[in-house]
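Let's practice the habit of predicting before peeking. Look at the sequence and jot down your guess about where helices and strands might fall. Then scroll down.
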Amino acid sequence: MAQTEGRVARLRALMEERGYDAVAIRCNADLRWLTGAERVLDDETAHVAFVTQDGLWLHTDSRYYHAFLDRLGDDSPWQVDMDRVSAERFVARLAAENRCRVVAVEDTASVGFVDGLEAGLLESSAACLLPRLHGDLQALRMVKDDEELALLRRAQEITDDAFEHICGFIKPGMTEQEVRAELENYMLSHGADAVSFGSIIATGANGANPHAQPGPTVIREGDLIVMDFGAGYCDYHADMTRTVAVGEPSEKQKAVYEVVRKAHEDAAAAVRPDVKGADVHAVAADVIGEAGYGDYFGHGVGHGVGIEIHESPSFSPHWGKPVPAGSVVTIEPGIYLPGEFGIRLEDTGVVTEEGYVPFTRLGHELRTVG
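Done guessing? Here is the structure:
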């Protein structure tokens, strides 16, 4: 529980700084981070936490109650209940009982939740301000602790193994969907408890669509295949892209690949604590632009990864803020030539005092398969 105690302490320090008596949390990713309860939360918005300087409450329902008790353990400071009241009434009751005057609410909470909370406070004759947190918990989650880094590294180990496996599996004549099924089955049967997202397997011209969906397209000799995938482990995610050649690549394919590789490695070399995300993006974009492919690279060069597959911070032209040490961010430049092929090269790594340290043990060479 030491890691989660540190996370609660960081939140309470923020509350004291802002003058919040309490915080109400509904976002499942924030709840997972704050409680440390692994493999309990899913896509349902069925929970709410209420945090004060001296109390931790968690309201859920019968579908999750016993799983929370099991994961949190007997010595947990969290008071968990499954009373048959709404999340709004639960928070309103605790706010009144604790004489709270300022209860901050996540900006991701629904309008219905806030309206219900206001109604519950009115019923309790409680006067209470409800300011928004405006992404404050997401900002706290940017800097990963040792436990989080260990989970992310394990997710990447499984992902690395899956890449080695799939390179030996792919043969001309298979479909994208067949490759996806084999890749995801391998991850799930070799340590993953989820996949990070629907794997992208895009062959030939489909690779020019950065988020192409796998389908019936047949893999052919001479294709490049963009494979973007990752294993999920205890609610944390790996995210990696490798582009492989089916047979001997053409001179053009090799040349474009080397541009992407240089863009990736130059961007990684530019990473240091508190570098601006936009500056890292610019390094990769400049390499691609100088090679004449600037019109064929349209997305940010990286995004944060953790409990969510896309979270703060990012290496993008829109992130002009510093990226702190301890942040986990992808680097994934690409070039996408419509009607021909696409190439993307992605690692996930941590920003350290020494620079960018990828989790993967795989290199950046263009692999051939088939």
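How did you do? DSSP finds ten helices and 21 strands in the chain.
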